[in-house]
Backbone:
């Protein structure tokens, strides 16, 4: 019980809240000073100056206002559920706080010599103070209640967005792990067959192919713990992959890679180029009798990094049966996760070939 009270008081005593209440009470004092002079004159209480009258009003409004604020906010935080019973309790609390604040203000002004303590006068003004306290107190309670609700809604929306982002990250990481794990069986099978066929007559070439395969597999395992890698490292892995496939396809596969040296250290999400190159070979070049070529071009245009993968294969449709939707969709989801709307992913495919262009911000860090 004591700990709960301490928590409530600490929340009430936040300077941001007190500052607003002090400002509102000061405005009320200004209002009463300008609007209350005629009324004050009619009851024979004429302060020595407007300044003194304002100070008196300020003391009264702050005493009553702060008393109401601390009483009501602690009550609402202790019993946050609104109801008719709470409403009547609030009225009683505001009435009691107004009475206490009036007596406190009267004591302060009499001790400082601004007014003489007059019980009849205080009793005369008490109903007016209670009515004013109910009016302004209710307004202040409504304001802070609305503010609290808005803050709660904003917090809930922010938490929901964070949770959705975490779910998306978990989903994307799971898909990325699946992608890493699926350096697909037919690729491994074909590669090992190629190695086996090379061993009798070209053992050096077979050894080189095994080393390239080892590098590729090691990269996919290491990438599990790295969301971002250098563009140069990604391109190097793509080159290893293409050289392995070239052993299998021979002259049916030609490739060209253009990567300016200054772009090698640019950070990008891992495994966003290799799946697209794999799609080009699997759905374009490997199916074409005469094979084809793949061109990978990286360039910088101001603050944008452009990565283009173009092939001369048969082309494909994203939603056609047998097309590797996971490869394309997985890359797009990872790009969206890291860059949001600040990236572009364009596909143009015809019977003469396919061109995919990725445009991402230079130096954009991964989302944590």
Residues:
């Amino acid at each position: 019980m004591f700990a709960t009270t301490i928590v409530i008081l600490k929340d009430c005593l936040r300077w941001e809240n007190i500052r607003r209440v002090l400002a509102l009470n000061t405005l009320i004092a200004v209002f009463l000073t300008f609007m209350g002079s005629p009324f004050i004159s009619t009851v024979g209480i004429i302060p020595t100056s407007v300044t003194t009258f304002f100070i008196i009003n300020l003391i009264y409004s702050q005493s009553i206002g702060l008393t109401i604020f601390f009483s009501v906010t602690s009550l609402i935080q202790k019993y946050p559920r609104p109801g008719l019973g709470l409403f009547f309790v609030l009225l009683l609390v505001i009435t009691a706080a107004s009475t206490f604040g009036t007596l406190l203000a009267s004591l302060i002004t009499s001790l400082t010599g601004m007014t003489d303590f007059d019980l009849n006068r205080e009793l005369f003004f008490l109903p007016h103070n209670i009515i004013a306290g109910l009016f302004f107190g209710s307004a202040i309670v409504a304001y802070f209640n609305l503010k609290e609700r808005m803050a709660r809604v904003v917090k809930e929306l922010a938490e929901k967005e964070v949770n959705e982002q975490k779910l998306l990250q978990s989903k994307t990481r799971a898909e990325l792990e699946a992608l890493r794990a699926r350096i697909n069986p037919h690729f491994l099978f074909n590669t090992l067959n190629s190695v086996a066929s090379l061993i009798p007559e070209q053992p050096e070439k077979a050894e080189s192919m095994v080393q390239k395969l080892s590098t590729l597999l090691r990269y996919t395992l290491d990438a599990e713990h790295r969301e971002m890698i250098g563009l140069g490292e990604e391109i190097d892995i793509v080159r290893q992959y293409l050289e392995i496939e070239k052993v299998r396809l021979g002259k049916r596969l030609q490739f060209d890679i253009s990567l300016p040296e200054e772009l090698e250290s640019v950070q990008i999400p891992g495994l966003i180029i290799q799946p697209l190159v794999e799609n080009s070979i699997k759905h374009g070049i490997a199916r074409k009798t005469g094979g084809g070529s793949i061109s990978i071009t990286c360039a910088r245009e101001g603050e944008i990094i452009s990565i283009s993968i173009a092939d001369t294969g048969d082309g494909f449709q994203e939603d056609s049966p047998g097309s590797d939707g996971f490869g394309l969709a997985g890359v797009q989801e990872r790009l969206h996760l890291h860059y949001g709307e600040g990236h572009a992913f364009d596909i143009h495919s015809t019977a003469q070939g396919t061109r995919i262009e990725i445009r991402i911000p230079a130096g954009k860090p991964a989302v944590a």
About this structure: The chain is about 65% helix and 10% strand. The beta strands are 228-230, 253-258, 267-269, 292-301, 304-311, 344-350, 353-361. Confidence is low (pLDDT under 50) at residues 1-10, 37-44, 319-326. The two ends are 40 Å apart (CA to CA).
